[in-house]
Amino acid sequence: IFWDRCDPNGVRRGLEMDEAAAKKYADLVPGTTEDNRQVLALANSTTYGGIGGRYATASGGNALSTLITPHELGHSLGGLQDEYDYLQRNVAGGVYTGGEPDSVHHTLLTEQEMRERHAKWWRWLGEPSDSGGTIGRYEGGMYTTSGVWRPSRHSMMKSLGYDFAQVAR
Question: How many angstroms from the chain centroid is the CA of residue 3?
């Protein structure tokens, strides 16, 4: 089911599954436990959508499904956050006001501070990004337009069709 339950004002891309039912079937696979498996459910839907987590989802009938799936598994297997600068499409996010994010690919630090502290993605600064461009400091992410920075202009966690940048990988 879509997370917004088809609310026209909701986030229309969140796709949930019955996790109890998925666990029941996953438990039938010999040798697996909750700690050593990843469940991915593909919905019989052409509507764009998915969610990461131990029980990840993607719209199997959507033309972008082959790109949605690695993005959602980036959340699950990589512990990655979204790099979107919005929560709802066509509505700019606000200003990030929190402290230094726990996320490995978001920061408040300057490039100089990252180098001095050997923090975040300091070791890749200035390298060509596997997702195009250069690893650096690009404003926006975590559903906000400003006040927090990410390592690349594009990556799988920001824009489908790009590779994971080195930091996310």
Answer: 17
Question: pLDDT band at 59, cuts 50/70/90?
Answer: very high
Strands (E), 11-63: 39-43, 50-51, 55-59
Residue whose entry in the numeric block shows the structure tokens 């599954």: 17
Residue 155, CA distances (Å) to 13, 117, 145 in order: 19, 25, 16
Beta pairing class for 138-141 and 50-51: unpaired
Which range among 68-72, 84-88, 98-102, 127-131 shows the weakest confidence by mean pLDDT? 84-88
pTM over 0.85: no
CA dihedral 96, 101, 107, 112 (to 10 degrees): 120
What is the H or E stretch that residue 148 is in? strand 144-150
Burial code (b: 16+ CB inside 10 Å, e: under 16) for 144-163 equals: bbebbbbbbbbbbbbbeebb
The Cα-based distances of 38 to 54, 58, 59 in angstroms read 6, 13, 17
